[in-house]
Amino acid sequence: MNKKHFILAAILLTLFIVAYFFYDYITLKNNIANPDYINQLQITYNANSSKSVLEKLSQIMILPNEKDPTIATIKDVQKLKSGNPEFYKNALDGDTLIIYTSMAIIYRESENKIVSFAPVLAD
């Protein structure tokens, strides 16, 4: 391959790379404006985050064999304390609430501690 072919190949490769990143940028810009895309990102993040929390919790506690417990991050513990002060007495904002059909658990990931747990009573 002579020098002209090499330069032409380098220019074409550079143009291809620029076009690829420009297309990726435009696609991302359009997706960010789409609420469904943002919700899907949050769902994916929450699923991965939930899996991580359950893996850590399973190292310190035997968990029920249920596939999909309800998992939520506590945002306003004071509101929760008004409804069930004993269960939430040591909970903090940012703790994770995991609810199985048989039990509820408050887990503090930053300290790898179970803050509280209680059986879930069916009505």
Quickly describe the structure.
With 123 residues, the chain is of the alpha+beta class.
Keywords:
123 residues, alpha+beta, 4-stranded antiparallel sheet, 4 strands
Written description of the protein model:
The chain has helices spanning 3-32, 35-58, 77-83, 85-88, and strands at residues 70-73, 96-99, 103-108, 113-119. The protein has 123 residues and is α+β, with helices and mostly antiparallel strands. It has a 4-stranded antiparallel sheet with strand order 1-2-3-4, with helices on one face. The chain starts with a helix and ends with a strand. The mean pLDDT is 80.
Largest sheet: 4 strands, antiparallel
The residue ranges in which pLDDT falls below 50 over 5 or more consecutive positions are: none
Beta-sheet strand percentage?
15-25%
Number of helices: 4
Q: Helix coverage percent of residues?
A: 40-55%
The gyration radius over C-alpha positions equals: 24 Å
Q: How far is it from the N-terminal to the C-terminal residue, by CA?
A: 80 Å
Assign an overall shape: elongated
Encode the helix/strand succession as letters: HHEHHEEE
Number of strands: 4
Strand order of the largest sheet: 1-2-3-4
Topology summary:
Layout: H1 3-32, H2 35-58, E1 70-73, H3 77-83, H4 85-88, E2 96-99, E3 103-108, E4 113-119
